[in-house]
Structure formats: C-alpha cells, structure tokens
Amino acid sequence: MVMKYLAIVGLSCFLAFFISHTIASAQEARQTITNAVTSADGQVTYSSPGAFNIETSLASWMDASRAREVLVKLYFPIINSAMAPATKFPVILFSHGLGGSREGGKRWAAHWASHGFVVVAMQHPGSDESLWKGIAARDITGSMKAGMTFANLGLRVGDVHFVIDEVFRRTAVGEAAFENADSKRLGMSGHSFGAQTTLSVVGQKPPLSDGKSGLDSRISTAVAFGPNARNKSNLARQFGDIKLPFFSITGSDDGSILDDGTRPEHRRLPYENMAAGQKYLAVFNGADHMVFGGHTLGQRRPETARDKGIQSGVMAGTLAFWNATLKHDAAAKRWIEQGGFQASMGSKDTFEQK
C-alpha cells in the first residue's frame, strides 16, 4: 500500500515538472539582476527584483558517506564597496519535483537572491531528469515507475541533511558563495515532490504509528508549492508536529495529475492540520500545479498574462514571508498578516492564516 501511494506521488510530481520544463543550458554559470526595490512612496515592492546584483554558479557536492553526488545551483548576492562588510544573508534551500533538476525554482531563487538571500537549488539523483532525459518516449513511463520508490523519498531527505551540512561547512571556511551567508538562518522550500520533501524535513510523520519523521531542526521556516496529503488518514498525526512558520501555496486548479484523485482542496490539508502559529495558505484563482514550479511552462501551454500575475503574487508573498521569518522584518510580517498581501492578490484569490 505504501509503495502504491509513493508511486502515485512520484509519477504525479514528475508529470508536473516534465510537461512544463524547458531545460536550461548546462553551460549557464553566471547571471546578473538589477532593479529597484521600492515604490514611489518609499515602500518595499515585494514583487519587484531587489537591489542586489546576483551571481549563479553550478557545483557538484559529493556525500562520501552515501557515495552520492548532489548537483547544486547557487544563487548569491554580490556586495559592492558601498555596502556594509558585515552584511549577512540567510540561506534558502529549494527541492525540485520528480524528473526535475537544479534548474527548478529558478524564478523564485533569482528573486529571493536579489533581495539578499543565498539560495541553494539541489538536484536529487534517482528522482531527477535522469529518469527521462535521453530515453525513448515509449520507455519513459517505465523509467518513471522505476524511480517511484519509498527509497527515493528517503534519499531526498538525506540529500537535504547533507546539503545543510555542506552549507554550514562552506560558510565556516568562507567559500565564495557563502562568505556572506548566515547558515543559522535557514529556510526550506520545494515544489510538488519537492513540497513533500520539504514537509518531510520539517516534521511531517508518516500516517503509520511506527513511522519516523525526517526532521532537521536546523531549518527554521518553510514554503511548499503545491503541497498535498496523499494519505488522508491520521492527518493530525502527520502534520500536527510542524511547529515552525510554514507557507503553503496552491491554486484553484491545482488538482489531479494523471487522474490520481487529487482535488484542489486536498492541497489545503497540510495547512489545516498544522498547529497554529505563523501558518499561512495562499490559493491563487486559476492556478494549476505547473505554474508554481518556478520555471518556464515550456511545451505544455503558452504562458498567459494570468500566469505572470500569479508568479508575481508568489514572488511577493514568499519574499515577505522570508523577510519576516529569516530577517525578523516586522514590517514584512505586518504586510502579510494585516492585509497587505491579500490586497496585492487578485479579487478571487484567497489568503488564510492561523
């Protein structure tokens, strides 16, 4: 039963990524973003790119204890001579969906980095693009099924623990991407299967009584794009121990993938069964599962004006959340909790908090 459940999870998450993903060049190594961060009245415009130029780099980190190579893409702000040398940036991790890569979430990552965060987008061997890349179309389904195992979820959780270890180590030795990082202010995020990974490392327990959490207590706050409760039993047990600030993001059309029975309301269940205290839920009207991946929609369908509006809302809400929880920005917290975020959303979008 557990294997069947995880198989459905895996294939659903893969399709969410594979149908929509356009592979970025493996040669991409650097990128610069510059823009204003304030509106005419001097208020922060959370959806606009930030004041920092950013740099990106690709790296391969070897987990010798597991003989496992984890590819990462790093996004980090560049400090110029006019800035205080003591500036330190919180760190955010991002986990892609099944069939994805370290290019997943790049829209979100670049936006966050431009506002003063170091972002580490990780790639999970065995549940990444290797499941379909270079494989004949007729064989892709079988390949995907081969990657749909409980073991792969466990490996993903292990990847997160390892990457956090590396962030701490590389920060301590002053590695270039982390020389201005504050590894003790650490956030976790992910889309689709990456949202499940995120839930697993912040305290979700399997529904069975003897199941164990993959909790990593070094994570202090989290964002999940398109989360779900695949198993509908013992929901309070599954999600009730998630105590840290948590932002769930979904859409009115964020439902079934491959006829797996998921309905949009199911993606509310993690939020509804978490303990109160800095828990937030945004539901964007008309948003499907793919628009939250943080990458171009690619072959699935043309990107619409509504997609761009949703993405703008996602960038605004998540940035304010990270500012509030990782930078302890009281103004950002007020903006989220006292109507600023809701006012920035569409008239049919909804926002809840507890």
Short précis:
Helices cover 32% and strands 20% of the residues. The protein is an alpha/beta fold and 354 residues long.
Question: Describe it for me?
Answer:
The chain is α/β, with parallel strands linked by helices and 354 residues long. It has one domain (2-353): Alpha/Beta hydrolase fold, catalytic domain (Rossmann fold, 3-Layer(aba) Sandwich), CATH 3.40.50. Helices cover 32% and strands 20% of the residues. It is built from 10 helices and 9 strands. The protein has helices at 2-18, 106-114, 137-146, 150-172, 193-201, 235-239, 269-272, 305-326, 330-337, 340-344; strands spanning 54-63, 68-77, 89-95, 118-122, 181-191, 221-225, 246-253, 279-288, 350-353. The protein has a 9-stranded mixed beta sheet, with helices on both faces. Strand 6 (221-225), helix 6 and strand 7 form a beta-alpha-beta unit. The chain is globular. Residues 1-42 have low confidence and may be disordered.
How many strands in all?
A: 9
Strand content: 15-25%
* Poorly predicted residue ranges: 1-42
The CATH architecture can be given as 3-Layer(aba) Sandwich
The overall pLDDT, averaged over residues, is 86
CATH superfamily: Alpha/Beta hydrolase fold, catalytic domain
Strands of the biggest beta sheet: in what spatial order? 1-2-4-3-5-6-7-8-9
State the major sheet: 9 strands, mixed
Amino-to-carboxy terminus distance? 33 Å
Order of helices and strands, N to C?
HEEEHEHHEHEHEHEHHHE
Named CATH topology: Rossmann fold
Helix content: 25-40%
Estimate nothing, just give the exact number of structural domains: 1
Assign an overall shape: globular
SSE-based structural type: alpha/beta
Q: Which CATH class applies here?
A: Alpha Beta
Number of helices: 10
